[in-house]
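hey team, just a heads up i'm posting the complex here instead of the shared drive bc the drive is being weird again. everything in one block, sequence lines first with there labels, then the predicted structure for the whole assembly after. its two chains so it's a bit long, scroll down
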Amino acid sequence: MSLSEVEATTESEQVEQAAGNLRKEAWKRLRRDPVALVGFALIAFFVLVAIFAPLIAPYAPDAQPGRGMITPTNIPGPSADHWFGLDASGRDEFSRVVYGARQSLLVGVVATLIGMAGGLLLGTLAGAFGGKVDAVVMRIVDVMLSIPGLLMAIAIAALLGASLWSVMIAIAIINVPVFARLLRGQMLAQRGSDYVLAAVSIGVRRRPIVLGHILPNSISPVIVQATLTLATAIIEAAGLSFLGLGSADPRVPEWGRMLADTQRYLASAPHLAFFPGIAIVVAALGFTMLGERLREAIDPKYRR
Amino acid sequence: MNDQTSAASAEKRASSDGLLSVRGLEVHFPIRSGIIIERQVGAVKAVDGVDLDIPRGATVGLVGESGCGKSTLGRAILRLVEPTAGTVTFDGTDLGALAGEELRRMRRQLQMVFQDPMASLDPRQNVQSVISEPLRAHGVGGDHRARVRELLDLVGLPASAANRYPHEFSGGQRQRIGIARAIALEPQLIVADEPVSALDVSIQAQVVNLLEELQDRLGLTYLVIAHDLAVVRHIADIVAVMYLGGLVEQAPSDDLYATPLHPYTKALMSAVPIPDPAVEDARQRILLQGDLPSPADPPPGCRFHTRCPFRQPTRCADERPALRTVAGHPATHRVACHWAEDIEAGRIQPAAEAVIEPDPAPDPAT
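-- predicted structure starts here --
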């Protein structure tokens, strides 16, 4: 095709500026971004720790290898045998932090996924139909957003009873409006675009237009938001557990609950607060770093 | 194919072989105000009473400056924008009376080519999916891969294009993809909204030629919306000139370019440079003053009277002229100006400040 070759050379610049390259370019920038890479490495680290917890942890999370060494005034700190020291029941703190990664990541991922699913549903309804449906859905979302997130999560978790699931559902619910609003805005913007008009003019039915064209082109910022939500979900889960709204089973280690249990020994055994606290911060930091940079990479406004 | 269902407002002659007939079409976009209780405080009259006939197999060019409502008119004809009033009769069917599934089926016959070929293609769809989408939407059976190859060949793209994505193509090639999509269902009418204005000048001619070639092969009827008079002259059989929501002149292409009757058309024509320096220097040019008035508050009477260099103290400001024929011109040449005869005869001269007189002694150095 000599004709197309001629056109390709005369308009190569135009091709470079094409909006379709946005994703590829974003990916390229992300791979060269040290902050994103560190974030990704941190996430990968915690995921691996969670998966291989039984291989990494020297003791079972509910074993009490140091039972005899514990007195109310003396809780041994880090040592060669117990890297992060022992907790008040004589359990190996390192093993518990390692196993705790499972709970925290599970809560973060599940809560985010449920929240995203709810947000996608509401956002799609509002964004696809507009008009009255949009007005009703968005007023509900506004009401949800007007209640402080953690306060609402506490109320929901308390209502559902202390369990891992109620923590996940509570965190999911407070994140629904964030996703719904984001997606709705994106979809409204896409709805007026030429390719949607083109699909209408061709005679494509509404459902394939919404699900096949508008939604896939609106989803990128939602994915980015999900990465950021994972970080806050981990912190919120720790917070709810800290308040005693998480799983009641003391054998299952969870970072937030570990922090709560340490309150009484804070003066004598600060290491019990330090290690789970650091784990929460670093895991959340990893998701935040990746999420922020992902957002910047996708958003043309941040281009440098 | 008569206008069996033409509305009462259709006082104009109906073309004996008209494919599309537009009567009294209005598209008003409400301007709303208020926070809790919204009330309509006005309307942008994007299209305000347009009559237009498109004969089968013809190409009608619709020209006008940006903001005059020509794109809205094109979209209202396709019911992509809901008309506020008026009728659009396509092949004997009143499009305004169709709804839902009936309208969706009818879209098969009416397709659109967009100005920006990138924006009109879903960036996540490959070409195969783009071009076969109309086939899927209307349940056309058969081998879609083969049909897409055939369509790609028809618009001058290689079969290998099918597996690629829109961003991998140049602007001209993307427009070819858009055209392939538009002809996939073998429609009768294609509304092309500025089909080449987003393309490099070097590519424009190729796409215009492609449109003409496809018209010959497939018996298409076109409504080509453009602001480029040269493009329209090349492609259109009939040209309609639009100003601020209404048509001011409509004529066969040659007539219009040879003897523009409406002052607005004259001004548009004199904005086109003539590729002969001697003629270019010797001709009288009319310049338009000011901007297009707001379509939310159009001037009373003739819409053009605020900028018209031939404005007269009577009639212009208080009586809106209708399209009419002028003695000495064919019946197909219609103009909406009260003073068309006097202007043509030279009895009314343009205001001096609106005219650039030919340079009496062109300086060869400049």
